[in-house]
Amino acid sequence: MIKMNKEEIKILSYLSDNLGNGGNILEMLKGIKKKYGTTYYPNIYNTTKKLEKKGIIKINTEGKNRLIALEIKNPLSIYYISEVENYKATQIKIPKELLSDILYLPEKFGIFSICTLETEKYLKLNRIEMLFLIKGHDEDVKLIKLLSELESNYNIKIDPIILTLDEFLKIMKSDELSPLKDLILNKIILYNSNGFWTLISHYNIDSKYKKLGKYPQDITRKELAYNYSRFGYKLNEQIEPSDKISIETIIFSMSISDEKRLEYGAIVLLKKNIEKINWAYLFYMYKRYDELGKLKSILLSLKSIEKLKANHSIELYVNLINEEPNKLYDIKMIKKYIELYD
CA nearest 314: which of 269, 266, 262, 277? Predict the structure, then answer.
């Protein structure tokens, strides 16, 4: 185990939060003070220089700026950052018994890494947002059911994002905005920090992307219209350029609207992209905002359509969702909307 002083831990924790990017030293100082407590410029400057000499971080010059970053290609840097991740995990305020049960999961399932996201914020809401990086989706149902048991046993909400490594990389590399890409910037790695950072290093993932910066329910009408059009459909209004947002986020945001055109548009979007949707991510979106009853209502409506009666994903998630359907959709109207785009 590496011995690090407080300033080294603060700097590397900040770089961890930003997937290795620290910005200039004043930006980093401000960010560290905000999240990790009082620190001073000379301390951060001197510690930064020491870490640079060790090859743990690098300082690049861009114009008048000197930008600090983790030297991600140095194996020693991965070791250092993994040690910091392990330290952060020891500070987590999840009950020890629950944490022990969570850390037992990789023995039962093909789990590559486990992270909690925005941990402190969501614990105050009696929730845990969790990212599970897995090798395949074969055991998703068993994993979700076991997490449901943990929810019941410990009286806490657990909202899982279950992604294969390829799915995670696709989301992180995409030019689409997505809640996960915001959440990942405030993570605590509970399992396999070395593997997680080796993945980040190998695929050159960083935080130099635009953030969604809002809850899905706050996505504007302009953004919905643009993205609905981007996926091949229209809301009968003028389309203005906007940010690309992931299809799962758009489906969720449209479906919780009180406007029928948006509600039914979400169902059309899901039906037309039923083989492309990341179902585990879609499930997370509805669970996170306590809308699984609505998702079940949508799936039951789609299940009534002849071509989708035997769809495996619909059947799987209908059976997985314990909540009762809470919305009655007009099947004739759904078919009418779908026929417009057939």
Answer: 277
